[in-house]
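EI: anyone free to look at a 479-residue chain?
SC: sure, send it
EI:
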Amino acid sequence: MNVEELKETLKSDFCQSFDLVLLQRKIGELDCLYAYFDGMIDKELLENGVISKLFAAPTLNGNIDIKYLYNNTSSSGKIEEIENFLEAENTLTEGFVVLFVDDLFFSIDLRKMEKRSITEPPTSSVLKGPRTGFVEEIAVNVSLIRRRIKNKDLVIQSLTVGKYTQTTVAVCWISSIADKAIVDSVMKRISQINIDGIIDSSYIGMLIEDNQSSLFSQISSQEKPDIVVAKILEGRVAIVVDGSPMVLTLPYMLIESFQDSEDYFRRNRRTSFVRLLRLIGIIFAVLLPAGYVALQEYQYQFLPFKFMITIINATSGTPFTPTYEMILVLIVFDILNEASIRMPRFVGMALSIVGAIVLGETAVQAGLLSSPAVLVMALSAIGMYTTPTNMGTFSIIRLAFLLAASLFGMLGLVIACMIFIVSICSLKSFGTDFTAPYAPVVPADLKDGFIKKSINDTITRPKALHTQNKIRKGKSKNE
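SC: here you go
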């Protein structure tokens, strides 16, 4: 196939794409063709570092001098020979320069694409600790992990997922720690994914988790390399997806929702206090609206007399029953929350604060809502932010508890709580109990539960995780 035929074939195969660049040049006495997509390579390096060097390349008996080709492009970009034309086209879509010459195909790595700089992630800001965050470039994200784990046991294997996107997915683990069965299961599930494209790492998470119908995700997503590295050192597996700043880690346990990276950089008593506050906050957030409705509708006799009189005076004249009133307030607050997230940053901040205050105050003064209902909903909304990773899930559970309490009072709320506890206790994440170390109780893992012990006591890795090596800390010189 001559150069002209190659050009026509490439144009036809890529549907006359305007960003496909085809440069016809000489290598010695031979016509050759450089093909690449505009915006994906370093053009200056191509012209000065490759084409200019190969222009005077010698030929042997009319054939390209392969040795000269390799020696004179190695400093500009990694060059590899490609077996066939189909593989050459696939390599072209990955951003490489493809060189067609003398019925041979070569790929030259001159990729240079715009990428976001490494900054502190907006969702995981800390006062104390590392501030580096992942970006959308998989090579950068893998290097951030590799930079922190300087050991030959760190294994990083890549797969390609997506019929059209051909997204690169890197699976990371430490071979001497992680359970081989979990690693094999992860690799098998990812390799079996058959989908048009992977846009974000959340696609992978939803496609490989154990129970896809559960409200809770059984795979964690993190935006900071220090957190991911800490989880890998515990025996977990990390999944890095090209184009996504969120790295998946598994197995995942519910207790991780109440942990924060900053917990490990401050005193244990403060950490324990904060974790208990998060637990109390989410309990209030989920149960307070339902409990308020149950007490008002059914078990009002449990309220102190003076408090009951105050609520009666505050709710008299409102046109809605406590159930409808609470559902209305819940929906309004959720709408405000969604609007504030999707509005421009400064407008969203003003909307969330001014909107909640103005709407709540106006609705109370107009007699549409009672002040206790607005207060209960505000306390519940604040409590939701103590575990932001599961805020959407707990919001749905809060509504379910509210409906149960409105139908059957405190009995319905208790039954709903029992069903909820049984359902989450039955979940597993790649063989690990979702509610460990509390259900089932794993005494050795309680040292990093809601009550955190000193780092000197964390001698073993979490026993709820299946790992090859349980010991992570030996005795220090002072012990």
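EI: The CA atoms of residues 23 and 34 lie 5 Å apart.
SC: 👍
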